[in-house]
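Researcher: Structure prediction, please.
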Amino acid sequence: MRFPTRFVLPAMLVFAGGLPAVEWRYPGLWLKVSEEKAPAGGVVQLQITLTEPKPIIRTRMEVVFDEEVVEEIMGVSIFSEEGNAAGMASRRGNVLTIQAASPDASFGYSDEYPIITITARLRSTAKPGTKGAFYIDPKSDFRQPDGSRWDLNGNEAGGVTVEGEFWIEDVLPASGPVAAGQVVRILGHGFKPWSKVQISEAPALRTEYVSPTELRVVADAAYTLDQQYVHVVAPDQNEKVYYPYLRGVNHSPSEFDQISASEPLFSHKAYDSAVFDLPASLSSPGGLAGVAVQNPNEGPAVVWFDLYDETGARIAAARTTLLPGERLVKELREIYKGFQRPEHTALHVWASRAIQVMAFAAAPEMGEVTAILPESAGAGGYQQK
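Model: Predicted structure follows.
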């Protein structure tokens, strides 16, 4: 079974902005997609890792997979060392396109966590023993902090095998602090009464078997689920590692096909305030500009959306309430009904609790929805119980 590996790297350099750097063993990127197993109809979580951590400031990655084995891409999560990478993912047929950016280039710099995880459900009709490939298209683009392109020196394909009867589908809560005595639920299939759970860097856990589809764990001390992994071992020594993240519920998909077909990849940080610059090009015919928010708290969050013109005058305002685990992904014309925004605007999003937030855009010539990172963001954290 693979476990996250802590690399030992000789510190030699420092990038502008304070991100530590090293003299690399390899000149370019060495990518790897994991190998996973699940029965027909089951869920797998594939991890994309780097053999050697490297700073990446932005990427456009295409992941190609076998549609005859994979029915649904259930979610995608992005990870950066400082927690501020964000992006958008969209599926077209058997290609998952991931576009992401990290303002400090800490995306790809972790030595013990995947840069991307992809949660997928296998087809119920898939035959046992069938193997379906997942691989990164070599034309994918990865950029260094100075904007130059990383060479792909290694690109190891992975995939899924239709096999076994054991999988992890979700962890609740999926992120944030866990209080002493608080229950964490592990949902899936094929759990046994003597299954055991470990969470990286968490204190000792007591595992309670609820059913073949649920385990619960409790610790006597507080810990956090942010940037951790969950390890479940069954009595017959079958084991799985799962990297939890919040797959928020979107009760009202966008009316715009490009947006409804795209998945926001929220950063691991939560903010109570964020400001986004929306350039004039997005006001052209066919251009889209929108916002995505997600509530990782255990209570509801009120969210305000204020739009300002280039003189600093507020020209539109709206508000909504997000229930715990709820998300909203909308074009601005859906936020402000009937409103036609001027060419250059700034969007200020603020909330009663710290939330995950990002803006996104699609210029007429782009054809794809891309993330817009905040110009500024207010300090915030997950709300304690």
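Model: The longest helix spans residues 257-260.
Researcher: Thanks, that helps.
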